[in-house]
Write a structure and sequence with these properties.
Elements (H helix, E strand, L loop, with lengths): L10 H6 L4 H9 L14 E6 L5 H17 L2 E6 L4 H14 L3 E4 L8 H9 L4 E4 L13 E4 L2 H16 L4 E7 L5 H14 L5 E8 L4 H15 L6 E4 L2 H13 L9 E6 L2 H8 L5 E5 L4 H14 L6 E3 L2 E4 L4 H8 L4
Parallel strand pairs: 1-2, 1-3, 3-4, 4-5, 5-11, 6-7, 6-8, 8-9, 9-10
Antiparallel strand pairs: 10-12
Helix pairs in contact: 2-4, 6-7, 8-9, 10-12
Bound molecules: alpha-L-arabinofuranose (AHR).
Length: 335
């Protein structure tokens, strides 16, 4: 892995770097270099968050605020409303502000190299959270905090293979945001797992953009096109889409969780409630605690140059209805 070394440039030198015409424009928009961070011991960190498309995403943002407060970090969160151009603009604005570090949850996996090069030129370390990127130079970021998203898909697929026990099973797949690393990896893992079972076939696969409302529409049209009795299972790349699909199936007179098996990813409180009520069957947990380890790595790096691991892998775990009621109670007020 490429080592990542940043000299400790001052906020002022970052602001005056001659090649940063666009950064200077962003700085002016934010009130100019007078609003730089720097000085004092408090870390100032910019977080370019994707948006609030799912319950998991909102939980991650809340967890980030709590983690920052606990550590005395000044965390500036920019909501990109699921648009890469907004994220690029936010990263440029953080560079212009001279923050101590940047956290980036990349909505899609490609197209980041130019702005990451700008951050590197300004000596501002970037840590990726919850999604991966495709880059020609992994030295452009310090570390990434994510789960093994291929494993998430594989766990979901393995559970389904085991649960249908050889029965013929047409599956509807609800994919997340097109172009995101989560989609590519979760699909790969699931496809690998079900490739061992010729009785399981994906008969429809479409994006619900990780949102309840879009997934509900996609499920409604899947039910119309395939016929309610020709769907044996639904695999959704996140729980919110599964909640939307469950609504669509119920409105069509189907019985998700009973006649139609469901498996999704995230572990949000609502899916535990659906499992406890018998409307859903399984979820693979993705922890929303991504920013806490990222801030710790950043703090150690800034303090004494400690190089973090290149990939901080978070835990992945499958949950079933037996613990759903208790899990719902435990989680409902967590974030
Ligand atoms: O990248 C993580 C995914 O993004 C979550 O599974 C999903 O809910 C979110 O929108």
């Amino acid at each position: 892995m490429t080592a990542f070394h940043y000299p400790f440039a001052t906020a002022v030198s970052r602001c005056l770097a001659p090649s940063k015409v666009m950064i200077a424009a962003a700085a002016l928009a934010l009130g100019g270099c007078g609003q730089q961070s720097g000085g004092g011991d408090q870390l100032v960190v910019g977080f370019s968050q994707i948006g609030s498309e799912s319950g998991w995403r909102s939980a991650e943002t809340k967890a980030a605020r709590i983690a920052a407060e606990k550590r005395g970090v000044n965390l500036r969160i920019a909501d990109a409303q699921q648009r890469q151009e907004n994220q690029i603009q936010a990263v440029r604005a953080f560079i212009a502000q001279g923050v101590d570090g940047i956290l980036l949850a990349p909505v899609v996996s490609t197209g980041w190299d130019p702005v990451l090069r700008e951050a590197k030129a300004a000596d501002i370390p970037v840590i990726l959270v919850d999604r991966q990127i495709e880059t020609s130079d992994p030295g452009l970021y310090l570390s990434v905090v994510t789960s093994d998203q291929v494993l998430e898909g594989r766990m979901a697929g393995d559970w389904l293979v085991k649960s249908v026990a050889g029965r013929n099973c047409p599956v509807v797949e609800l994919q997340g945001t097109v172009g995101s690393s989560s989609v590519v990896a979760r699909k790969k893992g699931f496809d690998e797992a079900i490739s061992k079972a010729p009785n399981l076939k994906i008969v429809r696969s479409q994006s619900g953009d990780f949102t309840r409302s879009k997934a509900k529409e996609v499920m409604e049209s899947a039910v119309k096109a395939l016929g309610a009795t020709n769907i044996c299972a639904v695999y959704a790349h996140n729980d919110d889409m599964m909640i939307g699909a469950i609504q669509a199936m119920k409105e069509a007179g189907m019985k998700p969780g009973k006649d139609v098996l469901t498996v999704s990813i995230d572990g949000v409180p609502d899916i535990f409630r659906a499992m406890a009520e018998g409307d859903a069957n399984a979820t693979v947990e993705l922890t929303p605690e991504m920013v806490a380890p990222a801030l710790d790595m950043l703090a150690a790096f800034k303090k004494n140059g400690t190089q973090p691991v290149k990939w901080h892998q978070t835990e992945t775990r499958l949950y079933l209805p037996d613990t759903a009621a208790a899990e719902y109670e435990r989680r409902k007020n967590l974030y």
